[in-house]
Amino acid sequence: MDPPTQISHLALDIGGTLVKLVYFSSNGSEEESRNGCCSVVKGRLCFAKFETRKIDDCLEFIRFNILQHSGVQHQNGAVHDYLSVKATGGGAFKFADLFKEKLGILFDKQDEMHSLVGGVNFLLKTVPREAFTYLDGQKEFVEIDHNDLYPYLLVNIGSGVSMIKVDGDGKYERISGTSLGGGTFLGLGKLLTKCKSFDELLELSHHGNNRVIDMLVGDIYGGTDYSKIGLSSTAIASSFGKAISDGKELEDYQPEDVARSLLRMISNNIGQIAYLNALRFGLKRIFFGGFFIRGLEYTMDTISVAVHFWSRGEAKAMFLRHEGFLGALGAFTSYETRSNNDSKPQHHTVQRAILNCSGDDSFRHIPVTSNLNDSETIECSISLV
């Protein structure tokens, strides 16, 4: 008989649009560490997400899938004891009373920027084949030289967008941002189409053609390039620009074309602002994260093309397989203090083989051969001391 699942170390990132969860699920295997100073529990990091407007669905998931396996809740749902949980994002403040009342969970609040940076550093240093590029339909994983990781620019695309210059562990500065992010895409998308969710809007945009609505350089120059300044005929001169002169109403356009144009507009804007900030500080490495991307090839290609165009090929956009869980992962890595249900402090470390690059090329590229969506869990272990 398989040992019962034991779940611990729940961490949440509660944003304006989405709630992201990370938690450790033990496989029942425990052994002594090499130096004998602690026991090591093996298992997997698991991930889940919910729309913030459906916070009750998140509460039910935690109640029935996590608390009943954590040793702090009876099968009948009664709270046995309060559970201290790491949480970050604005919702850690907004929903603190709700989680305490409904689940007996006390939030140990973590700084949002610190958690984002901690989550990215955690992934880049411990999870192989985490970072990759996507340009012109080509996906390539990127090996990271941990001795030459910093500095880099982190572009986190949530409801809004934050751009953070990272100089080392715990060394970072928010240098810019924009209010045009995932929340803008979903908000305008709901007003302009009949979509009710982020995933529905993304799926709709996948079938659209932005050229029906966007004004291209070729539309202005009679189908030709403006080669003198490096603009091709297919470059977008004005997002939604054709709506000015088409003489059409909103209902005359296909909703998938509207969604596609909206996605292209926001992605282009983010890519351009990101590169300009990288140029401002002399940064060559730009990592994009946040659930706006969702591994969608069109979004990644749009951002990559924008960075490539404005940098004249000198900079590359890089993406992360666990892009949407950066804040939650950063909060997870902060489990170092005594919780209300522990008789002794607990520390954890994720143990994975770290890739080392050879030669002087600190970012050697490898063709992608695995599915970028196979990121539901990460094998790891937790050290209890």
UniProtKB/TrEMBL annotation:
Coiled coil: none
Protein's UniProt name: Pantothenate kinase 1-like
InterPro entries on file: ATPase_NBD (IPR043129), Type_II_PanK (IPR004567)
Source species of the chain: Camelina sativa (False flax)
Gene giving rise to this polypeptide: LOC104787127
Domain of life: Eukaryota
